[in-house]
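=== Structure Prediction Worksheet ===
Name of assembly: unnamed complex
Input type: mixed (protein and possibly other molecules)
Chain count: two
Listed entries:
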Amino acid sequence: MDYLSKLENQSIYIMREAFTKFENLAMLWSIGKDSTVLLWLARKAFFGHVPFPLVHVDTTYKIPSMIEYRDKLVKEWNLELVVGKNEAVLAEGRTFPNGKATRVECCGTLKKDGLKAVLDKHNYSGVIVGVRRDEDPTRAKERYFSPRDKNMEWNVEDQPPELWDQFKTDYDKGTHIRIHPLLHWTELNIWEYIERENITVSPLYYANEKGERYRSLGCYPCTFPVKSKASTIREIIEELRTTKTSERAGRAQDKESEDAFEKLRRDGYM
Amino acid sequence: MNNGSSAPSEQLKIVIVGHVDHGKSTFVGRLFNDTGSLPEGKLEQLQKIAERRGVPFEWANLMDGLQAERDQNITIDTAQIWFQTPKRQYVIIDAPGHKEFLKNMITGAANAEAALLLIDASEGVQEQSRRHGYLLNLLGIRQIAVLVNKMDLAGYSQERFDSIEKEYRAFLQSLGVTPKIFIPIAAKHGDNIASLSNNMPWWNGPTVLATLDQFNVTDLPLNQPLRFPIQDVYRFDERRILAGRIESGSIKVGDKLIFAPTNKSSTVKSIERWSAPKSDFASAGESIGVTLTEQIFVERGAIAALEAEPPYELTRFKARLFWLGREPFRKGRSYKLKLATQEVDCEIDDIQKIIDASTLDTVQREGKELRVGRHEVAELTLKTKRPVAFDAHSEIVATGRFVIVDGFEVSGGGIIAADNYPRRSSDSAHKSENIYWSHGKVTSAQRALRNGHSGCVIWLTGLSGSGKSTISTELERELFNLGKHVYVLDGDNMRHGLCSDLGFSPEDRKENIRRVGEVAKLMADAGNIVITAFISPYRSDRELVRKITPAGQFVEVFVNAPLEICEQRDTKGLYAKARANQIKEFTGISAPYESPENPEVELRTDKMTVAESVARVIEFLDVRDSDSMISI
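=== Predicted Assembly ===
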């Protein structure tokens, strides 16, 4: 079995464990390449069906074509979409860069608090998220089944042991578990799989006529394209095999301080 | 897959273990740097941060992603990063060496296929060096290389290297582990990592990198007996799909599967996948779905196997276990055991030995309390509340290991030791042999004393119209008036509820009788006199019920009247319909009736009245119960 198939089979196994163990399960869909691959894997796991709702935490700062792409897929694949927004903060304009918030504060309220609001509202006890270990040093420490306490906080110093595909599926009321079926994939693996499975992803990932493409998608005030000539999946794969720039290089909120991203994640960010 | 020709097509997972401060994270940082795997600017960024904080630059900071880890220069949690050589891609798992974080070390190591164990040349073999060696072996990792690190602090001395190798090799040997190689390195300076060091001219290689490339990717257990644990049963559409991952062996359409521990069987109708080439075959490692030809009740936790090679199904097994929970693993308390997709309550049956994994010494416990403490390893026997399907770890890995959950937390893990377990026979008549009957604290003798009689099954058999129903109701009333606990199991009543899913095909009739027999047996076990009145034309069906009922408690009553008499009576008008071909397979007309060969009681209802017949049965019971010293 080639390693892409190994990765795929493992992710399917994890997703099925999540589905059988959590009554109130949802999947976060950021519309990026990773959560779109995740969505594809869900359809593999459940024989063409997606038996849980997709939650999109909308900051209203997403690049407009991302929303277009989202709505197109929802229709084509017959998906149940739940959109969450932090209406209060948006109404008060406490956002970056037009308001009175730093990048990190803005991420905290619009994404982290927006997520908490939607989880509380729908009482989700299991949330599938498409993060990968190779994205960032704190994500490198993650578990496949990662508990969050009542305040959504991640106790990274005291994580559950995880061995032999026996996961943490017993949890206290009010807490929830993040499930990370893509944890063992790399950015390169994701693109190799997109190529193999012929999955449609947002056109923003491909180089435009200005010679720029997005490696990672987020909100437009804080996400910048990288210089690239890669305009096809194959060219992106070739580029990634030799690149020495990190994937989140175009994500400004990570760089405000040495541990900015770690703090966000401890507080419940994806 | 359309990969470029230069792309490596396999991936190997390596865990880095060893005592705290023996240089694991430093080694990984250096390995990344020396293989050109660092992202651009990462090194400069870390150097700048170190300068700003006024601390010396540490290679370990590459791996230690948490602020607390960088502050304390200690790895708290396991992390994974990737790099590649021309041969393949590597996943490097850095595991913490501090005793406090042993559960994180196990999390890292349990996912690896090979291990590099680091020992500090100046400090030598330490507590965690030994414990990690022991646990690697317990976790099933057989490919191990030992790196003797910080050779610079030991003057690059060959003598020092040799003495550490000698000591640690002897320790591993006592566990039955043969390491692939010992290599002298100085991670901080890159000695013998990617290229040979000038500082140790006495070492001719190989380097660490060359050693990595010599490890093998773990083969999937394709040629072992099939184990297909069911994760879930889906009914998203008209198909009823059993979903799961094949842990060992292979499966194909047409295979007859047996599902442990219930022992139901059915045949594979199709193998289901989505957006993948259709195939009637699947093998180890594949997450698939299966549909069956006959719909049987299967749920999560069942393990499908081929009939000739079933797993063990028992409520007791021996294991080697490590404990990570804050609270000890105590005898007398109940825990949850998770094995493949099975979950069952378990408790300690007996602890044979508790081992200190860092010294291999047996731990002596004072007092009576039996427990396995945090970070201890034990050889013990576990008993489970229900039978569990398993294999010895040495035979099939995936169904030979388990974890123990205490409250909400996974608190321990273990592997099942090989032993002389009884193997279920593939003969279907012995299906239930290894499921232990659970005995309460009230015995049947005690029940019989209180009731004044023992329980039994009075099984009336005979042609339609022979008088079974009439006799059964009269017999019930008579026994009831005598103060006995008696009940008639009525065929129609059974078909309304318990057997409502059954029709009248030969298979369904057989299953109907089997269920009636099972219910009758349980009611008799509860102390009742149970009367049944079914044609039950087949000797084998009646014999099956006799077999499952305790000796002496099955009373076969042959209600015997000639066919002509029965047909004359024709109380329900069924014979007329059968003669007119309106009823197919009617016993006596178009289907056989097999008379009992040695019934306990025979009632010639063409010559006896109902009252005489009832009296004959009671007489038999009377004699039976006086034999068993209970007066009726």
